[in-house]
Amino acid sequence: MRELILLSPYRLPAQSTQMLANDDVASFLNGYVCLWHPAAARGAERPPIVASPYDYEQPRPGQIFAIPESPPLLLPEDWDQRVLDAHALAFRSAPSRETTLANFKQALATFEDREKLSGNGLDADGNPVAEAPTQPMIANLLDLPASTLALFFSVGFGFLQIEGLFEAMEHENLLAAADLWQDVQAAVTAIADPDPAAVRRHLKSAADRLLAAREILYPVTIHLLDLVLLAEQKKGSGVFSAESTVAKSARLPEKTPDPFFWPNLRSGLALNLITCSETLEMLHAEHPEKLATLRERFQADEIDICGGSYREREDPLLPLESQLWNLLKGTNVARNLLGKDISVFARKRFGYHPQLPLFLNCVGLHRTVALTFDDTSLPSFRSTVTNWPSPDGKQVEAFTRKPFKADDPQTFFHLAYHLCQTIRQDHAATLAILHAGDPPSPWYDDWQELSQLAPVLGQWTTLTRYLGEVMPGEHVAAPSADEFHADFLYERIQANLDHPVSEFAGQVRRRRQMDTIWTLAAIYQGLTGTPVPLSARTSLTLRVGMPETPTRSVSEARLADLEDKSETGRADPRELDETQEIIAQALAERLQARASDNTPGYMVLNPCSFTRRLALELPTTSGLVPAGGLVKAAQEQGNKLLAVVEVPPLGFAWFARGEMPPHSQAGEGGMRLADSSHVRNEFFEAEIDPATGGLRGFWDQRTRASRLGQQLVFNPGSTTKANEVRVVSTGPALGEVVSEGTILGDQEQVLATFRQTFRAWLGRPILEMRIEIEPRQPPAGYGWHAYFGARFAWRDERALLLRGVNGTGYVTSHTRPETPDFLELRSTRQSSFIFPGGLPFHQRHSTRMLDVILIPEGEKTQTFDLALGLDREHPIQTALGMVTPPVLVPVSKGPPHVGACGWLFHLDAPNLLLTTLRPGPEGQDSITARMLECSLHGGPAELRCARNPKRAVLVDARGETLMETTVTGDAAQFEAAPGDLMHLRVEFI
Fold first, then answer.
1. In the chain, what is the straight-line distance between the N-terminal and C-terminal CA atoms, in Å?
2. 949: which DSSP letter?
3. The pLDDT of residue 923 is above 90
4. Which of 153, 284, 580, 650 has its CA 20 to 30 A from that of 15?
5. Count of alpha carbons within 13 Å of 371, Cβ hemisphere only?
6. 393 & 256 share domain
7. CB 121 within 8 A of CB 61
C-alpha cells in the first residue's frame, strides 16, 4: 500500500502565527496539495500526512514523498539513494504550483521506467508490470485535465485546513478520514467512468464529510467575503483614475487593462467588486460585453458592486461641494450603467474623514466598507460590523475587518488559525479575501473549487447580503479627525505631478467660482421664477461645449454640465468666467429694472451667506466717488483705484462712479495703514522683521501681545536674509509692505530668492500674505523632509492646535495636520488663525512651530496666497470668503429702486455655512439651499426670501423629501442639528 508523506518541520499554525518566508509556505502547501494527485492517491492507504524528516530517514517501499525546496531539509546525504534503493518515490515541491506538478510527473515517470529496467516486476503503482491494463491508466492519470485535478486538490486543501482547525480549536479530531478517503479512492476509479459527473459526485461526498466535521466545531455560517479592486493600477502609473480635478499629468493608460478577476466569476460564488463609477464608464466604452456580464450578475444579486465615488481622488482635502459632487455623480452614473442602485460605499484609495457617514446618508448610502487598501490609517474597530457615527449622530453600518490578500501564500498557510480566531472572537465569524492587482495564489482556486462542492470553510456572500444579515457588534463614539490620515503628499510626488501642492489651492478657487455661479443663478430664479436668459445683446457666449437650446437660458442642466467639466478638469477657465459674467449681468439688470438711467456705477453681488467687506481693484479710467456709506475706503494707486466695499449677505451693493480729483483719497478714521515696518488696521497690527523679511509679530489692537511670527524656510535647515523692506501703500484703503531677500543654505549658498507682500485693508479682518519663491536649488527627496515653506511660531507651548475639517475645528496632536481650511491656535480666550487658502499640507516642529508646505519636489508654482486672522468666531466663513471671487458688474444706471444695498435671501444663523444655492430643475419655481452646521451647536434657523414661499421641505442631496418645514411670511423656518448637513428646498407661489 502506498503512503503519501510531506516531509516538513512545520505544521499549520494553530495557536499563533508563524514567521516564515513566502517560499517556505508556498512549497509546503504545494507539496501537500499535489500529493492528492490521482496518480499519487490511487492505492494509498490513507490521506497524505505531514511528518518530520527525522522519522523517515530510512524510506520504505511504496512511500511517496513531497520534499519542499524551501527551506532545505536536514536529511542524510545519501537519502535520495536510499529512496531509490527502497523502491520509493520522492519529488521536490517548489513555490510554483506548475513547477511542483512538473516535478511530480517527471519523478513518477522516471520511477516507472526505473522499476521496469531493474526487473523489480513492479510499476509505479506497485503492481506487476505484466498487468497490461494498468499502463494506460497511469498515463491517463498523469494527463488529466486541469478541471479534474482541481477537484482533487480542493478536497486535499480542505482536508488540510479542517485538520488544522481541529488542532487550533483544541478539539478531538472527529473527521471521518477513513470514509472520506474511500470517497477519494472511488473518485480515482471513476476517472475511467464514461459519466463525466461521476468524479464530482464522489468528491462532493468527501467535501460533505469535511463540512460535517467543521460543523462539529462551529455549526453556524462562516461568512466569506471576496473583495476585488477592479482595474487596480500598479504603482508608478499615477494615483488618479483619469485627469483629476487636482492633477493634469496623472492619467490611466489609453486602454483599460483587462481586469484579472474575470476567470473567477464562478457561478454560484459571490464576489464584491470595489470600483469607482468612472472605471465602469471606461469598461462600458471599451469592454461592453464584460460590463453586461457584471450588470446581469449584479441585478441577480450574485455579485456586489461597491463604490459610490465617481473618481478616486483626495476627497478629504477637497471642498465640501466637490466631495458631494463626487458622490452624487458616482451614484447616478453607477445606477445608469448597472440598472440598479449600489448599496455599499467603498473606495480603493483613502477618502475618509469624520463627516463621511453624514455625507453618505445624504446621498442614500447607509453601508460602507471602512477599510484602507494603502498605507493609511482609520479608527480602530473591534467588531466586524460597526455602527460608525458622524458628529451629528447619523450612522452607517461599516464593515471593518481587515482582509487577507489572495496573492499571499501566508493567507492560506494561516487560514485555519484565522478561522479559529474569528470563530472565537466575533459574534459572526467572518473572513475577507482581497484581490489588489496581482493574480491570486493557486490555493485560492482550490478554496473556490471546494466551495463549489460544499461550503466547508464558509459561505461566500456579497456585502449587501452580509450587512443585511449580520447586526453591528459595536457602537462607537464619533471618531476625531486625527484618527484618519493618509500621506497624500508622498503619493502625489511619487506620481510626478507638476503641482502636488498648489493644485489644491487652484481647485478650491475653481470650486468656489462654480458655487458662485450656482448661487447667482438660484438668486435670479428666486427673484423671477425663471432661469437666467442668454441676453441677445451680450457679446459673451457659452461657446465651449455648451449646446444651445430653443429657450436660450442658463438652465440647471447647463450648469450641471459645466460643473461636471469643472470637476473633471475639462472646463475652459474662460467658460467659467463668461458664465459667471452672464448670470451676474442678468441679475444686475433685474435688480435695476426700475433704476434711474444715466447713473454709471458698479453692482457688487455677494454669493455668501455672511456680510463681506470686499477689496476691489478698479481701473482709474472709470472714476470713483470718495468713501462713504457702503464704500468704507478708497484710494488711487498707480493705474488702479482701490476700494473696500461692504456687501450684505446673499445681497447686493451699488455705488456710483464718477470723476475723482487726482490723488484724492478717502477713508474712515484717518488711520495710517503702513509705515516702514508695520501694517495695521482696526483689527490687528503686524510688524515685518527687517532681518528676515518675515513677521516679527502679529497682535490685536487691544492687548498688543504678539500672537504669531513667520519666516520662510527650507527644510531641513536654512537661514533667511532680507535684502529690502519697503512700503508700497500707506492707506487709507490699503496698507502694503513688501520684503525681498534670499534663503541661504548651511554653506551660505543661495537656495532661493523670495518676495513677501503683506496687505492690510481697512475694515477687513485678515492680514493677506502673498509669498513668491524662486528656487535656485529645487528641493528633492521625501516631500515631508525637503521643501520650501512658511514657518509660523507662537509663544505659548500650552496653546491648542485645531485644524478645520469640512468647516469644523478639531483639536489635533498630529505631527502632520492636513487641512485646506484653517489652523487655529487657541490659548485661554484668544484664538489666532492661519488660513492657507487651500494649501493642505502642514508639519509641526516641536510644540511652538508649524510649517505650511509650499514647494516640495516637483512643485512648479512659485506664488502662494495665505492669510492670518485673530479671534474669528466663525473661521470657516473667513476661509470661504478668502477664496470666493468678488462679483463686480459695471452698470450704466442705478441705484436699484429698493436702495443702494440689500439682501435677496437671508440666513439668520451664523453657525450655518451656506455652501451653495441651487435653482430648481426646469419647470420648477424653486431653489435649494445646502447648509452645514459648523459649530456643533444646533438650534432654530430661518431662511428669508425675496418672494414669499409656498412650501419648504428638508430634502437629502438627491432631492428626496425628508420632512416639511414651517413657512411664515417670507421665511422658511427649520431646526438645525449640531454638525448636520441640510438641504432646504423652497418652492415659490
1. 93
2. E
3. no
4. 153
5. 25
6. yes
7. no
| Eight-state DSSP code of residue 719 | E
- C-alpha cell at position 417: 488559525
Residue 789 near residue 853, CB atoms below 8 Å: yes
One domain, residues 743 and 768:
yes
Q: Which residues contact 639 (CB under 8 A, 6 or more apart)?
A: 619, 620
Q: Which residue has the cell 489609453?
A: 254
Sheet holding 666-667, edge to edge: 612-619, 640-647, 631-637, 666-667
| Residues 486/316, Cβ–Cβ less than 8 Å | yes
8 A C-beta contact, residue 879 and residue 834: no
Q: State the sign of the Cα–Cα–Cα–Cα dihedral 28, 32, 33, 35.
A: positive
470 part of a folded domain? yes
Domain membership flag for residue 107: yes
| Domain boundary residue, one of 479, 508, 527 | 479
Burial class (CB in 10 A: 0-12, 13-18, 19+), 954: middle
Lowest-confidence range among 181-185, 443-447, 921-925, 943-947?
Answer: 921-925
- Does the pLDDT of residue 638 top 90, yes or no? no
Rounded distance between C-alpha atoms, residue 688 and residue 282, angstroms:
54
Encoded amino acid at 965, one letter: T
Query: What is the tens place of the pLDDT at every residue in 14-62?
Result: 999 999 999 999 999 999 999 999 999 998 999 999 999 999 999 999 8
Q: Do 738 and 728 contact (CB within 8 A), yes or no?
A: yes
Of 332, 356, 235, nearest to 278 by C-alpha is 332
For residues 576 and 543, membership in a common domain is answered with yes
Residue 888, in any domain of the structure: no
Domain limits for position 608? 594-668
Asked if pLDDT for residue 669 goes beyond 90, the answer is no
CB 27 within 8 Å of CB 21: no
66: phi then psi, degrees, rounded to nearest 5:
-105, 120
Answer positive or negative: Cα dihedral of 450, 451, 452, 454. Answer: positive
Centroid of chain to Cα 754: 35
Q: Are residues 604 and 654 in the same domain?
A: yes
> Rounded distance, CA 923 to CA 77, Å?
90
Separation CA 551–CA 122 (nearest Å): 93
Question: Is pLDDT of 661 > 90?
Answer: no
| Higher per-residue confidence, 730 vs 639 | 730
Asked if 725 and 809 sit in the same domain, the reply is yes
- The total number of structural domains in the chain stands at 6
**pTM for this one?**
0.91
Burial class of residue 731 (count of CB atoms within 10 Å of its CB; 0-12, 13-18, 19+): buried
- 238 found inside a domain: yes
Per the document, the length of the chain is 989
Looking at the structure, do residues 523 and 617 belong to the same domain, yes or no?
no
Other C-beta atoms within 10 Å of 639: how many?
Answer: 8
Mean pLDDT of 162-172: 96
The pair phi, psi for residue 251, each rounded to 5°, is: -140, 160
Same domain, yes or no, for 56 and 103?
yes
- Give the position of cell 475511467: 192
Kind of pairing, strands 787-793 and 849-855?
antiparallel
> Mind listing the pLDDT tens digit for each residue in 86-126?
989 999 999 999 999 999 999 988 887 776 655 554 554 55
Q: Which residue has the cell 473567477?
A: 264
Helix (H, G, I), strand (E, B) or coil at 369: strand
Whether 771 and 760 have beta carbons less than 8 Å apart is answered as no
What is the secondary structure of 578-609 as a DSSP string?
HHHHHHHHHHHHHHTTTPPSS--EEEEE--SS
Q: Give the residue from 641, 668, 695 where a domain finishes.
A: 668
CA distance 645 to 627: 9
CB under 8 Å to 282, separation ≥6 — which residues? 231, 252, 256
772 and 716 part of one domain: yes
Q: What CATH number is given to the structural domain containing 913?
A: 2.60.40.1180
